């Protein structure tokens, strides 16, 4: 796996090579996930440090994590599409899927509650401004 | 080599439960209205801890009531007192937790403070997550979905990194984490069903 990561990194250094293969969307082709441009490199590095890794995590580890995260989100999305209202992803579906995992469930509940409170606070703040 | 920062922050925070994050956030980032920081702040665990405390509390309260009055009164008193006591108890435990958190954070070393700040502030970019989900569904998704998914993804990363650090320590290596640690962590989490996988079908009767 690491050899593949290094190989792919080498390919990215040669623009000519990439122009041939890249279909413009950064794409998903037979070469696999690594073909796509790295979406979360910076954020994942900060996250890994926050969760206990070194301040400079290895790039290969960050890549592995990114692939895992994208696969996770993809799986969750597909599952959410198949339950509840078909073809759509709704919050209730996500909450249902996550119900067995206590950490994730608690986290989602907290985030949604906080978001509601913030929205209410913002609305009240705006109304106060509008009134005066 | 275990990182004391990790042990102190992750384990103690996970076990004790977090304080009210709004409280901390108001102190630190009053101008930031968007919930960009994701921290582990769990109202759920604290309410889960409550039922145990509550049972003993309300039993004690019930016992007290029975001592005081006649048979008719205590039951209605108990009913009135219970929800108030629940709210009080929740408030008290929340405040306790907030205080504990403040004491803990105030005693952090600089490296620990850095790590804690990264822990709370790091988040996935909402735009990228939204684009990713929409590319899979083909239709638009609401903002709440993006918020929920980013939050869950962060917890997911945390679970893997923690497991990988355990593996790293067990194998006698030091951080930074190497791919072999990550892969072993994934293998372990898969065996615990914490990583969803719909690609492999279990055919029961072949």
TrEMBL record, chain A:
Biased composition range(s): Acidic residues: 12-23
Domain of life: Eukaryota
KW Transcription (keyword) present: yes
Location in or out of the cell: Nucleus
Keyword Translocase set for record: no
Alphabetized Pfam families for the sequence: TFIID-18kDa
Segments for region (Disordered): 12-32
Annotated keywords: Nucleus, Transcription, Transcription regulation
Family indicated by similarity: Belongs to the TAF13 family.
Protein name: Transcription initiation factor TFIID subunit 13
The species this protein was found in: Ameca splendens
From TrEMBL, chain B:
Listed Pfam families: TAFII28
Domain of life: Eukaryota
InterPro entries: Histone-fold, TAF11-like, TAFII28_dom
UniProt subcellular location: Nucleus
Biased composition (Basic and acidic residues): 1-34, 41-58, 79-94
Keywords: Nucleus, Transcription, Transcription regulation
Region (Disordered): 1-94
Location of the TAFII28-like protein domain: 103-188
Signal peptide range: none
PANTHER family: TRANSCRIPTION INITIATION FACTOR TFIID SUBUNIT 11, TRANSCRIPTION INITIATION FACTOR TFIID SUBUNIT 11-RELATED
Family classification: Belongs to the TAF11 family.
Name of the protein: Transcription initiation factor TFIID subunit 11
Classification of source organism: Eukaryota, Metazoa, Chordata, Craniata, Vertebrata
